């Protein structure tokens, strides 16, 4: 693999940061908040859940904003109590991916996913995104589903290469699977994402600490944006983690003057996946 700093021709002490929002397409509230943050430069990248009912909004945005840095948030789980989504692929080809109601499981099944069926579903999601007008700048994985075992991780990597788009991988994820990585792959040095258990009053302090701790190289900060409105409250009812209030606090933080000022003060360079992808060199396709 080639370090991002080398690809971009940056000095060795450059700190790069992708501020990335997950779950675009999940619902209208998430779409509104995420796309507003993207338009205003508060985030530099986002990825969309193709199976969700509000993905069409994202596709329309992508068609009118071809410069937007939008990826596909490959999805195998449908975690909310009364708001669910189904596979994109035809049912016979993904029977093991759904529960007895026909929706994705709320959490990874104990026996794991069938790798062949998961690969087909991932491929169908990428193809559907493109058909709808979203040309993905990268792929990543909802709830880290693609990272649950070596076979599925290998399928995820292979799909990225086949589609000639980067896939989110960090050094911690590839530990023990170094054989998966090639010279054409981009590896994020460190990924940051707020985890459950942080007191609400510490929200902004956490993010400011992250900005202050960034080391030179390529970093990614993952956020989950949305408005604490009736729609998102209903969808996430009974769940504090990644719920409506959580997503509003994330939105308020990354759009705040304090957060933006800290980025400038720390001399952090914001970057997106589109810029990284444009610099990649893929092996030539075999002549047939």
Would you write up a description of this structure?
- The protein is α/β, with parallel strands linked by helices.
- The protein contains 11 helices and 7 strands.
- Helix 3 (55-64) links the parallel strand 2 and strand 3.
Topology summary:
Layout: H1 4-8, E1 15-24, H2 28-39, E2 45-48, H3 55-64, E3 70-74, H4 115-132, E4 139-141, H5 150-162, H6 171-174, E5 190-193, H7 203-213, E6 217-223, H8 230-235, H9 244-254, H10 257-265, E7 268-270, H11 273-278
Parallel strand pairs: 1-2, 1-6, 1-7, 2-3, 3-4, 5-6
Helix pairs in contact: 4-5
Mean of residue pLDDT values: 92
Q: Helix count, per DSSP?
A: 11
CA radius of gyration: 18 Å
CATH third-tier fold name: TIM Barrel
Question: Percent of residues in beta strands?
Answer: 5-15%
CATH architecture classification name: Alpha-Beta Barrel
The secondary-structure element order is: HEHEHEHEHHEHEHHHEH
Overall, the morphology is globular
Distance between the termini: 28 Å
Count the strands?
A: 7
Structure class = alpha/beta
Roughly how much helix do the residues carry, as a percent range?
Answer: 25-40%
Main beta sheet: 7 strands, parallel
| Low-confidence blocks of residues | none
Brief overview:
The chain has 288 residues and is an alpha/beta fold.
Tags for this model:
single chain; 288 residues; alpha/beta; TIM Barrel
